[in-house]
Amino acid sequence: MCLLLGATGVGKTLLLKRLQNILLKANCDLGEPPVTLPTVGTNLTDLTLRKKRVTVRELGGCMGPIWPSYFVDCYSVIFMVDSANITQISSSCVQLLSVLAAEPLQTASVLVLFNKRDLPCTMTLGEMKSLFRMDDIIASAPQSITTLELSARSGEGLQDVLNWLDSLQPC
């Protein structure tokens, strides 16, 4: 099980729909982004990759207080951040630190995704990593942490996410 976490409106549902489209279509034309609604509750999505099948459980951002009840039997976490929403950055950082501190996730692989890089007001990956103090987090966290930037809307960076999922080893 892979958990997909992040604040409301960061693009979690769009990410899953885009990943499914890439895996289902032989060509790379993703077309227009599908319409999405804020997730209330949880969505389960199976992704069939080259080496394995991964079940991704997306938890709505509004469910943050009960995310820990889903941490058991989870071997990986994708944590999404809206890099265009400056007002959400500090709370996203606190949420990420809380996820990394959770006992059941101490051996999980973690992918931190900085989304919405296609928007003109987006901070660069370097700026985001600096604000989050990612170097310090990576140095002190027991988890293996990878950071990527992407645009779930345009599709830029989606193949990197699939490659990361495909490279995971169950705990």
From TrEMBL:
UniProt entry keywords in alphabetical sequence: GTP-binding, Magnesium, Metal-binding, Nucleotide-binding
UniProt cross-references to Gene3D superfamilies, sorted A to Z: P-loop containing nucleotide triphosphate hydrolases (3.40.50.300)
A Pfam family reported for this protein in Swiss-Prot or TrEMBL: Arf
InterPro entries found in the cross-reference section: P-loop_NTPase, Small_GTPase_ARF/SAR
Binding site residues for Mg(2+): 13, 39
PROSITE patterns: ARF
This protein's record includes keyword Magnesium: yes
Binding-site list for GTP: 6-13, 61, 115-118
The protein's name: ADP-ribosylation factor-like 16
